[in-house]
Amino acid sequence: MPSTPVTADRAPAGTTVLECRDLTVRFRTDRGEVAAVSDLSFDLRAGECLGVVGESGSGKSQTFLAAFGLLAGNGRASGSIRYRGEELLGAPPETLDRLRGDRLAMVFQDALSGLTPTMRIGDQLAEVLVRHRGLPRREAQDRAVQALAAVRVPDPGVRARSYPFELSGGQRQRVMIALAMLCGPEVLVADEPTTALDVTVQAQVLRLLRGLRDETGSALVLITHDLAVVAGLCDHVLVMYGGRAVETGPVREVLRAPRHPYTRALLRSMPSLTADPDVDLAVIPGQPPDLENLPPGCAFAPRCGRAHDACTADRPALRATGPGRASACHLDDAGGHHGV
Amino acid sequence: MASDAVLRVANVTVDYPLGRAGLFGPRRILRAVDDVSFELAPGECLGVVGESGCGKSSLGRAILQLVRPTAGSVSFDGVDLCRLSTAALKPYRRDLQVVFQDPLASLNPRMTVAEIVGEPLAVHRPGIDARARQREVDRMLERVGLRAGMGGRYPNEFSGGQAQRISIARAMIAGPRVLVCDEPVSSLDVSIQAQICNLLRELQRETGVALVFISHDLAIVRYMSQRVLVMYLGRVMEEGRRDAFFAGPRHPYSQALIAAVPVPDPDRDIAGEEALLAGDPPSPANPPSGCVFRTRCRHAVAACAGDRPPLETLDGGARVACGRWRELAGN
Amino acid sequence: MASRPGALSPGPVTRALRGDIPASLWRQASRRFARNRAAMGSIVVLLLITVTSIAVPMFWPHGIEDASWEAILAPPSFADWHWFGTDANGRDLLVRVFYGGRISLAIGVLTTVVALLIGVTWGTVAGYLGGRIDGFMMRFVDILYALPLLFFIIILVTVFGRNIFLVFMAIGAVEWLTMSRIVRGQTLSVKAKEYVESAVAIGLPKPVILWRYIVPNVLGPVVVYVTLLIPTNIVVESYLSFLGLGVQEPLTSWGLLISQGAGQLDSAPWLIAFPATFLAVTMFCFNFIGDGLRDALDPRDR
Predict the structure, then answer these.
(1) Which of C12, C25, C213 sits opposite B159 (nearest CB)?
(2) ipTM score here?
């Protein structure tokens, strides 16, 4: 993102940078073990943008916290997550420290908690370059200002000398993105980066993320609860429910012709600027899944209008339904007999 | 506008003191709401939209007299609530109720659900006995989609969506005629938002309660409201009937807001730079001169910094506060 | 999700991942408290000390004022029922320690109750009403804070004479200051909660809002502070007695016994050892209970 890339060795576009296989994340709680993520597999390719969509309790954030070695103390991950062939689960802290903030970067919803309140913005950015890249402080400071300019913070020279509390929410999120992009990471994970922002600022930040992806060729993961946010930005989408992937595929196809009843119901339950507002929204009944009491079959079955006996008895596996597409639904076995 | 309005807000201004600038400097104030007027007919829903810091929540609190407006009047059934003492206001509390954004923060964690929902009855209908009140509470819980047997539980045993239903039950049980909803669904999961929106719509149809629906989400406001009021830095930028407003927003700010709404349509791009607003809203403590929106407006000219554009009332009751809207509409 | 604060409210799952049990807050807290062994053990020990302090002086063969000329400064022995030995007047130390326990515990609890009542009332009223009333009430607290406790008590004692109730009053009257500050801070944060606004919106009168909405929600930190205040007040009474400003003979308290024993540390170490042990064990117990309560009421702070 800085005008001259600080990093050289990058995976060529299209090769897999992050490979997740059979990831399961469990938490020990007062009332026994809870699986927040179960048997999750996906690939992330260089230059690709993957949208991970789900409600609270879907496991979407825990997946990437596990990949980054940032799980809470009572959590444990099994399976495999490889960054360019290097295993991240169970990797020694030194390995993770070397990769995090350098090759792998993460942006959170709450930008203020990610910044040190007592340090100037520019110093925080420079610090990363000094530590990960060994740049002399002077040069690092200059690059920090460039980085702020690249995320379109107005008056970057002035802003570099500001403290986090002096910035607006949108500017803080830009700073967080600048911080994440500083070393030219190959994987940028943005966890609900725009949820706390106003719509007008949200659109700015989404455009910024896309621009950075196009410029640097980084792989981008956008974790969100909002399918609409995914639509304009992502290439692929992974819809999660109750800790499992229920549908994956190219964004265009999934949004145009969703196969899983959850994806379809979610799309129908969102108010839009085009549908007739006098017609009541189709509602998904019930509550988001309670991970402590997941039903034995399909986690969505209790809320699914089309559930039958097989849905409550057996858990449907994620099966390919077309090129690059997969869905985990018993109703889909016949091969997409139901319309949109 | 309708002369039989249940709520008439006229020239309401809300100031918050900010303390002095320096030790002996002048006292500074933050004008959160600046000269806002509107009317609300029985059974109608007015959507109030704007970015954070635009004063929409302060307006809601001023309507409810949770903050007393610095100037202007809030008339309910022709009675100016701003002139009433706290004691004289009490009977009107039954008619004006509120649902807040964070459902768990709006329920007292030390009270059971039955106590929370039954409390307004105890205040406003002290005549009815405990048994009748219990029946009323059970009926209301079932009406909002909870089981009557849940009354003995505490708020933290519920999910966000269920807690918001409890808030709605508490707000609706005494039969209010105006319900202020301050971002009632924005902290809920997507699949739960539609449930709560539909519940509010049903209750509105059944009881004829008028809604002031405050939200930053234009798609939800479009679904909920018959009229839309757009606020920016405490001032009304535009007001209009829903369909006309969404079909042809007149104010550049309304246009930008609508353009920024993300749409789950892969063929529609994220709003382009030309439609987006630059930067963030300025601080309400230090608003720009003239038109407050001019610092982010693509169409701003030198004249916009001069006089504050008046809120012009057009044929059909729509209102817009932009000095150039006719000129811009012509292009 | 689980580990990130933000606009999405935590669902039941998220809260489960954080380790919260969906049940009434008090029930959750008591369950967590019951699992804290140090705290539960402390409760047992404290109960034992309380019960023996009340019961032992009732049936012990020696009274607190019974002087025995045959056993002056006798070391501890099972003969003649002088298990803890005797003092310079030949009085049985065991009965005096338990009797002193009555006074010390009573002072600790009663002064804390005084501090609690004044502090919670003052703090919630000041915090909830705010504005000028708050400013006036808290400046008053600041002024009292500036008066040294000892100075204050010496004035009280010289004006009103020595009296055990004066000691109650004096300690309680000083310790409520900190309590009111804690409560006021807590009230300010509770006051900003939307449930308080919703209470205003349904037209509840201010006293009801204070009692039903503010007080129960500020009590968490207060309960913890109370368990730490009781031992503090016992110690304050001890050093007042040590200085001769507290409890007067023939009544006694742990502090007074320690002060008397300190003079004979070389010749009769048991005179200080027994009351000091009881005082120390009691301090430990209250502190363990306080820690246990804090952990139980605020599970994230572990």
Answers:
(1) C12
(2) 0.87
